[in-house]
């Protein structure tokens, strides 16, 4: 269900410079310096010594843990079955018994190894069960979103808030000495951390360009989950699993120490500690020190390993998810002057995007636009005027929480209020989107060709990768390249090839010329013209009026400013005789028209003017045209 568009007068204004500041994110890359000069070899400088120390800090926990695991596996195997020998009871540590003996004469070096083996096994099973539960809950929450997500996250918070040990004690007290009860008591209280980490990781990957592109190119939620979200979240889940092991060791040990855990026959470290309680009062401190030392060494090494594993992971940005466009309002009659119905007909489309601080971005207001087969329409305007928001809406990919009204008819079908299934049937097939991010549209770790082949197979067409590449002017061996190996021009072409994989009747190209030099920009625009000439309805979103003017590829042009289309008409006319002051200012900024900069800054879209004109620009001292 869609929500009504909020009252435009309700949002409060904000400082437009805020968003500028946000764009200027400081470079946070590591700036370690290499040591130069003759003395560098002779005397290691602090800059060289520090990485070595860091390497040692990373290796030490792993080596300690490996030694402890070897100790737990090999020593009981080497020692065989021990029998009680009361003649050797409570011997202090010495040459014949390194860790001393307990009150039954058992060698504590062997006994602690057996205890560690049991504790590690129990902890590992608990951690695996908790991780499977956590991954399942996190994945469902991240992919379902909405109410399901909220319900699962509240449950997660609830379980997290419970006193774990108390719950463990209650469960184990109901089934005393039962191993499954011990595992359940630990696993059922420790999955929330994993669920939170997995959900957060999946949400951040879900907003990445290549996942958005996967949806655009027809992938189902299940395919996105299996191909992108789960593989991205699993390393974090694995780190979580390793982190859970020491927790589980401590919980199991505590339960056993309280006499609620395993029986002394299957001694864990906790059982040994519990048995040692009585011996300590006789002065035999080593009976407690041996298992306690092993427990502490295990916990510290796992904790150190966890930090080393977790330390190298880069952060990811959060962003928007692929929620369907909740468009409302009844379809209206075809008001187009042309007889051929457009492939896409937009009428009075209004979109309000929520901000984190409760305001609304007026990203699109009362937009009308037609896209027709065989025609290329250019949508121009400054950054932030709402062009990409419109393109996303035409694919049913508005940001979560978007409020909207108006009509979007695609191929004769009113898509107002259409559900995700309806949009998915249309994405990639009826409308293809070549997204703005170029090479970022592809998963970075795989070659481009197989990724385009996946799009073809998801959309079920007869296209082949070599044919698609040829169509966009790329050599067949470009398929073998990784995304980072593509030049800017090649990346745009590869993205266009993927967008054409479903033989769409409409193509939206978002900033295809961004970052390209004039010659490459012109080549890309001519490529899109050829796509239009083959009968496709093409929308090109661009800032690059210069390239449009040079190539003359556009049939129509719409000028967008502050969320509104302020002028529209034949491209040649709009470029040569713009009518709206903003269109005049845009063309006046071109080198061929005198390079007059636009005055001031565009208005803030959380508080836009009712009738945008150049006079509403903040900081404007000079108004061009008029
Ligand atoms: N997910 C979002 N949530 C809230 N506001 C958003 C979101 N995405 C974009 N906006 C805002 O919507 C407005 C229009 O953004 P949009 O990206 O559509 O502009 P644009 O003209 O395509 O600019 P650019 O060329 O830089 O992409 C901007 O004010 C932007 O900050």
**CATH homologous superfamily of one domain?**
MetI-like
Helical element count?
20
User: What small molecules does this complex bind?
Assistant: adenosine-5'-triphosphate
CATH topology of one domain: MetI-like fold
List low-pLDDT spans.
1-48, 312-338, 622-626
Strand content: 5-15%
**How widely separated are the two ends?**
43 Å
Secondary-structure class: alpha/beta
| Helical proportion, percent range | 40-55%
Main location: membrane
Protein name: Dipeptide/oligopeptide/nickel ABC transporter permease/ATP-binding protein
Keywords: ATP-binding, Cell membrane, Membrane, Nucleotide-binding, Transmembrane, Transmembrane helix, Transport
Membrane topology: Multi-pass membrane protein; Peripheral membrane protein
